[in-house]
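Long-time lurker. I teach an intro course on protein structure, and each term I like to show students one example going from raw sequence to a predicted 3D structure in token notation. This year I'd like something fresh instead of my usual example. Would anyone be willing to generate the tokens for the chain below so I can use it in lecture? Attribution to the forum is fine with me.
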Amino acid sequence: MAVGFLSLPTELLCHILLLLTPRDLCCGAIPTCKTLCYAVQNSAHIQYKLELYAQGFTETATLDSIGISRKMHSLKKLESMWRSDFHVNIVFQAEVTTSATHGAQYMKSGLWWTRRDHNLFIQECNPDIKLFRTWPSHSLSLRSQHILQSVIVDPVQDLMVVVSSPSPHVANDADQDHCVFSMEFYMLSSQLPHPDSACASLECKHTAEVPAVYCVVCLRGPVIYGDRIVIPYFIEPHPGSPAIHIQVVDWRKGQAQSFPLGQQSGQLGMSRHFHLIDQQTLVVIGTNGPITLYTLQEPDGSPQRRITYILPQYSLPRPFYYVVHVTTSFRGAAARPDLMPGYVPSLEPQIMVLEVVLPPSPVILVIDMAIFLQQAVHLETPVEIPWSDWGPHHTWCFPHHPSHRISVFGSRMAYALPQDRTPEPGERLEALSTNDRFYVHIWDFNRRAIARSEHTCDPDSPNLFVRKPGRLAELPLCRKITSNNPYIATVCHTSFSTRNFSGLFLDQDRFTMTWLRSGSVVDIQVVSPAHTEVGSDPTN
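-- Reply from a regular --
Happy to contribute to a lecture. Here you go:
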């Protein structure tokens, strides 16, 4: 006698339902079927899977040995961490002495680093270790007549990549392959060649179009996602506007190949940004220009333009530019499992924040990166999508000042503002003064978390933290990019000094701030919400 699907034992039903995606579990017939609803609600594994989906996280191998109840407990703790206004406890603080020249600062998985005067300074922000290392310029082995272009650091993969290019050189023959970049692969922890790379060094080649003296211009970047590195560049001199190329590198296999990107350098301006969303998806953002999505085709990584997202066009007396904030990638084999968090942001709810530095009224544009994943990227013909078809539905727009520091982790944005209350819709705040206090606001743009808050909160309660940006009417530009999508706003009520404030870095359960003091001293302070166990690790 045949047995119906709903007549199967609950345990077997749960095993079958676990094969479905969280999206499938939340829609279709399952929510309306009492038998399936009962199975879902009474399965700890399904509830954990749905909670991961709701919070926008992916579990890493760090949690493989942890039981399901402890996983759910740690996940719920993460959710409560930023769900209400809070004060903080100090997790770590240190003074770091670097060179006198100030350079860009970076932070990932508890490691802070900066490169100044060709020296690399690394601080491990762990209260039990407090390790500080310096890589002097002479230890970064460069070939003779080469210029240091960039240093790529990925703490989780214990990887440092030194990228250099030759001085202007002669290509005597057209169609001649010549070296445009040399790459050296080191272990970040030991300064030894990285054992997971097929070669300690790699030459990246480019085919000369005509005999000439060539100079390599490396654009903003490079960018890394797991095994893949993309280096954007162009060659000078070149008749007209030089074409942009990319080197697509597999650093583990020791392979590199050059491809034209199909854009001229003049089309994108000098302040272009490149971001790898995943191993196969590259997004290019140009000054005053559109956002262009490419797929990197297997097996060699050749780029194919798929979609161009048009941004509003403005006629302004002065030029403007973008500053881009995204989450760094956690993809790749974890050579340092101690630095890999138990949960990392999944791709769908992540955000990209564009600071539109636009005098006299700068704004920030928060983009839901799900649009880059949901669109049909296997189109035969590239398409353009006008702002009206994607902007109002997938963005948030806020007034801004460049002194208000920004950091992004997953769907959340940390924002340094001069007041301890959430700005009113459309409210423009003054700049951070040089000798006052600032407050760190945490804004969450995860649509599933927002829907949950709207469902569970009392609309009459003063603790309702779901907000909307409101309308900006200062300039015709602002009206063009205004959207009215909800977001969750919380604020840290502990204030911090604006004097010499230089960096803000958001992590999963904490944020880090830095101050540049007299000359070469950097103060680093890591804090975590006070209503959670400071420094707690779900793997313990």
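Some talking points for your students: Residues 5-81 form one domain. The chain has three domains: 5-81, 85-134+310-534, 140-309.
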